[in-house]
Amino acid sequence: MLYSIISALNVQTVLIGLLVVLVVYKLRQRWKYNMPPGPFCWPLIGSYEVIQAKYLHEIFGKFTQKYGPVFTVSLGPYQTVVLNDINSVTEALVKSKADFANRPSIHSVDVLTEGGKDIAFANYTPTWKLHRKIAGKALRQYLAGNHLEKVLHDSMNKCLPLMAKEKGAFNPENYIDLMVFNILNAVCFGESVELDDPEFVNFMKMDKDATEMVGKGFVEDMFPIMYKIWTTNKYRTVIKMFDEIISLVKRKFQEHDKTFNSDNIRDFTDSLILARKEAEQEENEEMLSQLSDTHLRQTILDIFSAGIDTSRITLYFAVRYMAGLPEIQSKVQEEIDRVVGKDRLPGIKDREKLSYTEATLHEAMRLGTAAPVGVPHSTLCDTKVGGYDVPKDTMVMINHWALHHDPNYWKDVEKFDPTRFLDENGKLGMKPESWLPFSAGRRVCLGETVAKPELHLIFATIMQRFKITLPEGTDPELKLGGSGGVTMPATYEVIITDRIKT
Ligand code: HEM
User: What is the pLDDT of residue 19?
Assistant: First the structure.
């Protein structure tokens, strides 16, 4: 009895002590720094409104109206500065780029990245710079030849006939997943799979479940002490999925390592192995220590999973918009018929002539931003943005969704209008200032040069082949699905008519 009272008292004392320390820390921060304003946040828990919100970009939009485009909010214990307009984003990511180039340390992410050994979530260190350089070079080598077009055509030739068999209303997700998966699978591992391949089915299920769970966040990331005491079922499930995904990439990497031949570089994985062999020949011990199996498989996992998720979600949006906007769809198809015809698939070289098609995809990426709040950044030093102070180690989020819906930059914000991206001659014009789906600065999307031709060709090829409509009675307005930091269209069905009967 006495023991339990003492231990209860101890717990209370510790908790109160912690609370006092936190309040003092917060007051000191307020006194020392002129931080951006923001809503009331509870110590440790953060903002109640954020916890309750369905989408982060939406609640951030609400705060912007009240506090302006730069505000502070606590997400659990993470004091976060959110940037909601292009001026503040450019100031942070372009003008003061090194200051904002770090990533916050989040436990669940640390598990997936085997201790931050990847690119996307790694700290801004010389090792990160080396990996980004090597991975960028490998991707450029891949894009230099006609590899990407071949891989794309192979993937589309496999998927389109399967899709054409659909009679009546169906959900196109599986086909889009297969198109994207096979392209990234070929880029990374030189392989292609069938629609019912267990590896594909299993990976997509795990990837989607994990994306949804990560998008909603984990209580354990808010209260890291929980990892040591007790973890939720949700957290244990996602960790099991991470383990499986890591094992899959590990197996593929080991197979490549065993069969590697420097005269025949088959894919991105081979390019990374080659970079390591070159470091071995140069006896560059320092570089070699940063090119361990773990580092290389984490780089591959980044390219594979970052590429699949963003691309599939962008295409879910694009197809759904086209199904609800028959006039725009017809214009896209007229252009493709005129430039490419119906006897061959669109190729990389057609892209510059398919301006309206490209503009339509850009508009789908604006209205249906696949990474609405991007990947969180963190400050490397005390710095400034929008006239406010941002202390070292503050989490910084970019609200890409807000940039893409800012009425100061977009007329009739909610209207789907591809001509925003065209000049007076109907050609693709300069990038609109507040269009930033791939972000900017030191951590700008590494896959942008792959994603742009990849998405364009998949989209153009689907549009060339099928007229897409919504089942009778469906509201043409797109409803948003996903939650937290992940957005996608709510599950939908379409009906397709084959425009090229084969
Ligand atoms: C629609 C397609 C895509 C979109 C909208 C997109 C968007 C983004 C965004 C917003 C970031 C975070 C940038 C920042 O931290 O400020 C990012 C990072 C990244 N993306 Fe993409 N991405 C796309 C496709 C791809 C593809 C196809 C790949 C791989 C081939 C890829 C690989 C990466 C990597 C590795 C990073 C981390 C960069 C770093 O931290 O240094 N992405 N992407």
Answer: 65
Bridge partners of residue 383, in order along the sequence: 390
User: Does residue 2 surpass a pLDDT of 80?
Assistant: no
Q: Which of 141, 448, 117, 135 is nearest to 250 (CA)?
A: 117
Q: Which residues line ligand 1 (CB under 6 A)?
A: 119-120, 132, 302-303, 306-307, 310-311, 314, 370-371, 374-375, 377, 398, 437-439, 443-447, 450-451, 455
- Say how far apart CA 438 and CA 425 lie, in whole Å: 26
pLDDT of residue 261: 96
- The domain made up of 33-498 has a fold known as Cytochrome p450 (1.10.630)
Which atom belonging to ligand 1 lies closest to the Cα atom of 93? 16
**Residue pair 100/418 in contact by the 8 Å Cβ criterion:** no
- Which amino acid, one-letter code, is at 65? Q
Q: What span, in angstroms and rounded, lies between the C-alpha atoms of 342 and 466?
A: 11
- Check whether 445 is labelled as a binding-site residue: yes
Give the Cα-Cα-Cα angle 292, 297, 303 (nearest 5 degrees): 135
Which value, in Å, is the radius of gyration of the alpha carbons in the chain? 24
Q: How far apart are CA 47 and CA 135, in angstroms?
A: 38
**Burial environment of residue 408 by CB neighbours within 10 A (0 to 12, 13 to 18, 19 or more):** exposed
Identity of the residue numbered 111: V
pTM for the whole thing? 0.92
Closest CA relative to residue 323, chosen from 102, 500, 191, 471: 471
**Whole-angstrom Cα distance, residue 468 to residue 321?**
10
Helix (H, G, I), strand (E, B) or coil at 2: helix
Token pair 């005491």 is found at 229
Instruction: Judge contact between 265 and 278, C-beta under 8 A.
Output: no
What pLDDT digit, counting tens, does each position of 190-242 carry?
988 888 899 999 999 998 988 888 877 788 887 777 878 888 998 899 889 98
Please state the φ and ψ torsions of residue 498, each to the nearest 5 degrees: -70, 120
Exposure string (b/e) for 266-277, b if CB count within 10 Å is 16 or more?
bbbbbbbbbbbe
* pLDDT tens readout for residues 77-127: 889 999 999 999 999 999 998 999 999 998 888 888 999 999 999 999 999
Task: Calculate the alpha carbon distances from 69 to 189, 239, 467 in Å.
Answer: 43, 35, 41
What distance in angstroms lies between residue 446's CA and the mean position of ligand 1's atoms?
Answer: 5
Residues whose CB falls within 8 Å of the CB of residue 83, separated by 6 or more in sequence, listed in order:
69, 70, 89, 92, 385, 386, 396, 397, 398, 399
